[in-house]
Amino acid sequence: MLAKLKNYFSLLRISNWPKNFFVLVAAVFSKHIFQEDYFPILLNGFIAFTIASSAAYIFNDIADAKKDAIHPFKKNRPLASGAVSKTGAVILLIILSAILVFISFQMSWSFIKMVWIYITINVLYSIILKEIVIVDIFCIASGFMLRVIAGAYLISVDVSNWLILTTIFLSLFLAIMKRRVEIASSPSALEQRTVLKDYSLNFTDQIAAITGSGVVLSYALYSVAERTVKLFGSEDLVFTTLFVIFGIFRYMYLVYKKDKGENVIEVLYTDLPMMINLFLYGITIIYIIYFKKIF
What we know:
The chain is an all-alpha fold. 72% of the residues lie in helices and 0% in strands. The protein is built from 14 helices and no strands.
């Protein structure tokens, strides 16, 4: 019984839930993250995207079960391995969808619209868009951008255009790095995901260079923008660009030299330098935005 429950929990991809913290980006950079009135709203937003993302993963696993069965790592997933039946996965998907519909009636339309756009894109991705070169990485990347925009709608604040651009470039960077790892590390990748035939290591490297540069430049311009300096009352945010540059370089190193990067959350969990860099970035951001004027 416990083993069966564990398999069903595996379908939810709990290890990927930290991606939903992107919903909080707008709250952090609009100086609202520590306001008590916003806590239940942000929590509900996080839960909504958690349910939506888990539902999207289950739908994708149902669609890809046969192909996942021949993948060296994905073959161990509950549906691909046969540990969970297709019927059981469909029932869980229906339950999650029902919960999400119920939550939808309690939240702003603007936020929920972003959630359902996210679900729609993921459904279309699972059915057909994942087989269209370039479009596939934009679909993967859209999830992060929609979370950030939805988070802004959640608490009715504006997000800097530079911050949105940073998110877009970062999302595309992570998506193309995922494709590169799939091509380089798995002999059966082309059979398991046919769109990879339209990519090459050289092509993915060029896109990675462009998107990685876009992340650094967009964030650097955001940190020195007049609106940013005025909002935070400090020009010190520019120094946090160092953490962003290190993060991009370290991620590229892990992809090119260690064949990691297919799962961004796994990289963050398992690489100590990345964990330290992310922690220091978070602490520095919080200090500059919320506490610099106090101390």
